[in-house]
Structures are given as C-alpha cells and as structure tokens.
Amino acid sequence: MTQRITKAVIPAAGLGTRFLPATKAMPKEMLPVVDKPAIQYVVEEAVAAGLTDVLMITGRNKNALENHFDRVAELEATLERKGDTAKLQKVNESTDLADMHYVRQGDPLGLGHAVHRAHMHVGDEPFAVLLGDDIIDARDELLTRMLDEQVKRDASIVALLEVDPDQIHLYGAAAVEVTDDPDVVRITGLVEKPAKEVAPSNYAVIGRYVLKPEVFGVLAETPPGKGGEIQLTDALMTMAEDVAGTGGVYGVVFRGRRYDTGDKLDYIKAVIQLAVDRDDLGAELRAWLIDYTAGLETH
After folding, report:
1. What is the per-residue pLDDT across 140-181, written as a single tens digit (0 to 9) for each?
2. Which stretches of the chain are assigned E, i.e. beta strand?
3. pTM of this structure
4. What domain range is 127 assigned to?
5. For position 49, which CATH number holds?
6. Would 289 be classed as within a structural domain?
7. Alpha-carbon gap, residue 100 to 56, rounded angstroms
8. Which parts of the chain register pLDDT below 70?
9. Residues 268, 154 share a domain
10. DSSP string, 92-149
C-alpha cells in the first residue's frame, strides 16, 4: 500500500529585494494579499490537499513567519475579553493550520540548495514543494491532482501553465511528450528562461512540485548553475532522463486561476483579483473599479 504524502516544504529564505523598502524589515512572504499574508494562502493550500506537516526553509530576519503561525496569548486574551469572536477566530486560523517546522537555509545558494536542506526532515518519502510567489485559487484543483499523479506514476510531478510565447522567457520551459491523459505530459527536458525562438514549448513551470526522495541524492551531485546557485531545474532535468531509476518527471497542466505575487505589478493585480471575488468586498470594489476605470479614459 502506498503511503499517503503528508509533508510540504515551503522555501521562504529570499530577500524580497523587488519589494524594497517594504521588505527591509518584513519578509516578503508576510506582505498582505487583501487581509492575509501571502504565505498563509500557500500553507492553506497545502493543508487542503492533506499536507499537514509543513517545513518552512527560512533565513535571517524571517522571525515574523514563525510568529504568524504561533500563538499570541496576549492578543487572544484581549479579543476574548472583548467578546470579539470573529477576530479571535481569524487569529487562531493560522495558529491551528498545520504542524509547522522551520529550518534556516544558511548560505543563499539557490532553490535547489533550499530544497536539499529539507532532507533530514522529509527522509525517504515523497513530498511537495510550494513556492510562495504563486498563489493558486482555492476553488481550482492542482496540488491534489499532482499528489494523485505521483502515486499513480511513481514519478516526480511539476505544475505546468500554458503561457503566451512572448512571456516564456520569464519561466522555466518544459519539453514534453503527450501521455494517455490530455492534462498530463511527460517532461523530456527543461530550459531555464529561454528566448521565445528557442523555447521547447510554451509550457511554463510554476511553483508547485511533488518530488520523489531521490531528488536529494541528485541535488547533492548537482553543481552550481545559473547565477552560481544550485538550481532545482537542473536536478529535475537529470531526473527527467531517469538515468538513476528516479521514475522520470511528469507535468500536470493547470488551467485554473493563479495569482503571481512575485513582482509589484502582478502583486497589485493579485490583490484586486482576489478582493473582487470576496463576498464582503467584491460588490463595492467592482462598482468602484468600473467608475475608476471609466475616469481613466478621460486622462
């Protein structure tokens, strides 16, 4: 019987320089998306897929991440004394989400290095990796499907998104072969941020992975690549060749809603997109947006 995957790894050691000065003293993962920090959406996604054991890879000045998922006794006591049960429930949601663990990356040697730091915690079982820059809409299935495909195919799984060919240079691009499922492809190669003219496809790798534990051995042998960092993409290229019996790599094609919080413009779009769908904010915000955008045409 195949053991159910329960462990998620969330790399969160980056400096967030694209959001300076906001991230000078606050982790970029704590930037609010409407009324929750971006990192909470990611942890909630993991938990909704049954991943209740969450390891966060952090770095210096990231204490706010640990504090957010910890108890705040004095705040809870104040809200309870005031009888503000609605706010108390919101505070407790992040505290009770998952069994949270933390390890520091140490040297900033890339995503592959960060994932390798999870080896001792994960051990010899498959696990998921979720990157905090990508928020997947809770109404759209992705991670659950990836977990199912990992069990079915006994392989590592990455999430793919079809993007405009003019945008493929912003992503890792996958060379693929079709399978018996139109939403699943076998990955035969990966190219990091290729020019449009040489990209193997317009399938972009986005920040969700379900990996077999063999990835740790591959990462240990992976030399520094682009930017002098150990790239997870390079390790996945090796695994896609299945030279060491790693089962290969497959991609699940995601056709749902994804919000990119990786740069300022996309972050602003993500906040608006999520807010307009909220029952408590949507109607008033949509009406305001219509009036506001109509006024822009006169400028």
Report:
1. 999 999 999 999 999 999 999 999 999 998 888 999 999 999
2. 7-11, 32-33, 36-37, 53-58, 99-104, 127-130, 134-136, 156-162, 172-178, 184-192, 203-211, 249-253, 258-260
3. 0.92
4. 7-165+177-186+202-260
5. 3.90.550.10
6. yes
7. 8
8. 1-2, 243-244, 298-299
9. no
10. HHHHTS-EEEEEE--S---HHHHHHTTHHHH-SS-EEEE-TTEEE-TTS--HHHHHHH
